[in-house]
Amino acid sequence: MFVKSLSLMNYRNYETLSLDSFGSVNLMIGRNAQGKTNLLEALLVLALTKSHRTSKDKELISFGKDHATVSAEIERKYGAVGLELRFSHQGKRAKLNGLEQRKLSDFVGVLNAVMFAPEDLEIVKGTPGVRRRFLDMEIGQVQPSYLFHLQQYQKVLVQRNNLLKQAWGSGSDKGTMLEVWNEQLAEHGVKIIKKRKQFIRKLQKWAQQIHEGITGGGENLKLSYLPSFGEAEEEDEAVLLEQFMIKLSQTKDQEIRRGMTLSGPHRDDLAFHINGNEAQSFGSQGQQRTTALSLKLAEIELIHEEIGEYPILLLDDVLSELDPYRQTQLIETFQSKVQTFITATGIESLNASRLQDASIFHVQEGQVRK
Ligand code: ATP
Ligand code: MG
Questions:
Q1: What is the band of 113 on the pLDDT scale with cuts at 50, 70, 90?
Q2: Which residue's CA is the closest to the ligand 1 atom numbered 21?
């Protein structure tokens, strides 16, 4: 897919902006704090309806303004689509080709984007919560039904935790209530776990290959799901459901004591091994960075496999950290098939020979000129 134009109004430090004439490789050049990341973020927001930097949509609205809009014209295989998101202090609204969408999930996935930014190192180095967020965002982008189960799961989880927190009297109605929540928790939880395991299995195939390429064959990357119950490889829904229910009944007393749900997809994790060693604890900074990059690049292929089109690639401040050989490698791998947006503080930090044909945009104080 291809972004033909982008318009912003009252978005972060952009009052109004209208950009077109994007090429297949686009460089956004500017000093610090001028609005480069804001531009990439706006594209990602159009893909996901939310930012990678904040969960608070209000932060996207320019200081002192009451609403922001982000819109774009994109070219997909089946034709051109106009996307528009409007953020106000009351919430957000989405339009496709001018038509208001009742469900945001119908909007997500019309534009697909993969972003690689410095903070993605946290997928490897950070807490399990960061990795779950990674899984949820990426799977949700290509499978709207995943988001549905995730939302339902989270609702049930809150209710169930509330019940667990309530002083546990002798009333049997609470026991019955817990049974009801258990069933609903397991129903949605199992769908989430299954989709995550499938995603990881497919991602692994590409990530391993790409990682091997980047490291010149020296490193073998392996991804594995770390479940809070059952075997990592188990993907059969009926088996997972039974295991989840058993686990919940086994830990019932402990959960009541602690007042929270102790197993399920909200407690699961993802592990990376390089040549058999756990990357979070034993990987060097460079190995961790390469692992995160391989994951993101693998996603590009995975999305292509899933929907038959390549997503756009957003590289925020990361290309200049790679040596000229790797920059060239990266650009050449995707140049002809993936529209790419790259930010950097100066053109001199970008050495890849292929960047000579790129479209260059200069970003300064919320204004952009080509
Ligand atoms: P760097 O090279 O340091 O990464 P950048 O060009 O990527 O810089 P951005 O992250 O895009 O910079 O941010 C540019 C500016 O946007 C910052 O000065 C920030 O204060 C401003 N900004 C962020 N949110 C808002 C907002 N809601 N309203 C107005 N300005 C904002
Ligand atoms: Mg930035």
A1: very high
A2: 13
